[in-house]
Amino acid sequence: MSIPLTTRAYYLPKRDGFESLTLTEIAIEKPKAGEVLIKVHAVSLNARDIVIVNGTANAAIPIKENLIPTSDLAGEVISIGDGVKDWKQGDRVCGHMTLSDYMYGPIVPANFLDTCLGGNIDGVLVEYRTFPARSLVGIPDHLSYEEASTLPCAALTAYNVLMGGSSLKAGETVLVLGTGGVATFALQFAAASGAHVIVTSSSDEKLELAKKLGAHDAINYVKTPDWSAEVMKITNGRGIDHIVEVGGPSTMPHSLKAVAQGGCIHIVGWIAGEKAPEPVDAVLGLLFKGARMRGVMLGSLAQFKDMNRLISANKIRPVVAKVFPFEKARDAFEALASQTHVGKIVIKVSE
After folding, report:
1. Alpha carbon of 247 to those of 158, 266, 350: distances in Å?
2. Are residues 223 and 110 part of one domain?
3. I need a labelling partner for 148 at 20 to 30 A (CA). Which of 95, 106, 128, 324 fits?
4. What is the pLDDT of residue 278?
5. CA distance 128 to 77
6. 46 domain-assigned
7. Does a structural domain hold residue 283?
8. In whole angstroms, what is the distance from residue 161 CA to residue 187 CA?
9. 211 and 108: one domain?
10. Domain named Enoyl reductase (ER): which ranges (predicted)?
11. Is 145 found in the same domain as 14?
């Protein structure tokens, strides 16, 4: 396969909105020892990408100047550097979101934020990119590049939520807030593991899709604002063993009411806002229930491989809401920001 000398990439000369995404041409680097060159076929977007591009990211997230954004790719190995033995030309791969040595365990290393792609390090919204060979995993055979691009962040985070702490057991209850990327993966993984899954959303249409993916119960939180009471009713007063908490402080009061004795609230985001509508006494809420609260960011490379085995064994297919061409990347960001979709927004970079 002939390798071009240059590649197109999206840069952020300034971070003040999606119009700042600038398509330019840069030189293709040759893979160094221990690296491979990847032809990027697809990239998926995360909520993190939105706040980075529009300049509203939390101050704790380090972001380099003139950044190439996004972190999640699926592609094809087209060249290998010296010493690479695990990969060969033509292999279909996904890249880990962080370039740190996060190989094992459910807890991210201390330097995690400094080593994340599309933040402090140039990301993957580019046609060709070198990548450390040790940070790659193979793509399950039944998945397309577009589907596989959704795995590195959303899927891996959902897997770590359910399997990285006290692993989910068949028959336990799982509450999934929303129908975004992490949520739809958590729903599918929980259903595949034999859990009873309850999903919340503001849309009956989204809830119907959630049921098709394996949800046993669905709650429209617009029609049922006191959704924690509805959860307790569904569970006969027992509550939830695992809550996938993507809303943040604004949904935490309900999550504290809905968690079971000895249960766990897994915090993975704050898409509903960073401020609570009412005071949250998490200390007493957790104390009286013997419950736990756990922050989850991503997962290790070993967990990525374990997750892919679960995906392959159960023929799980990621929920891809829409695929945009590379030239329409700005439209993809707009679509994600609208929050009207179910699942993941993907950019098709190349054939």
Report:
1. 14, 11, 34
2. no
3. 106
4. 57
5. 10
6. yes
7. yes
8. 11
9. no
10. 17-347
11. yes
Query: Does position 105 have pLDDT exceeding 70, yes or no?
Result: yes
Q: What three-state secondary structure class fits 256?
A: helix
Q: How far apart are CA 74 and CA 313, in angstroms?
A: 20
CATH number at residue 144: 3.90.180.10
Strand 92-95 versus strand 173-177 pairing type: unpaired
Q: What's the pLDDT band for 272 if we cut at 50, 70, 90?
A: very low
Question: Which amino acid is it at 117?
Answer: L
Residues 55 and 103 occupy one common structural domain: yes
Q: Are 324 and 335 in contact (CB under 8 A)?
A: yes
3-class SS shares of the chain: helix, strand, coil, % to 5: 30, 25, 45
Q: Give the CA count within 13 Å in the CB-facing half-sphere of 129.
A: 33
Vertex 51: Cα angle to 45 and 54 (nearest 5): 105
Please give the residue range of the domain that contains residue 280: 157-295
Stated pTM of the model: 0.94
Element (H, E) at 205: helix 204-212
307 in a structural domain: no
Question: For residues 147 and 43, is the Cβ–Cβ distance under 8 A?
Answer: no
- Calpha distance 224→229 (Å, rounded): 9
Q: What is the mean pLDDT of the chain?
A: 94
Distance of CA 8 to the CA centre of its chain: 25
Cβ-in-10-Å burial (0-12, 13-18, 19+) of 102 comes to: buried
Secondary structure of residue 101 in the 3-state scheme:
coil
pLDDT at 100 over 80: no
Report the SS3 class of residue 73: strand
Kindly tell me the burial class for residue 290, based on how many C-beta atoms sit within 10 Å of its own C-beta (0-12, 13-18, 19 or more): exposed
Element (H, E) at 309: helix 301-314
**CA angle, 330 then 208 then 188, to 5°:** 75
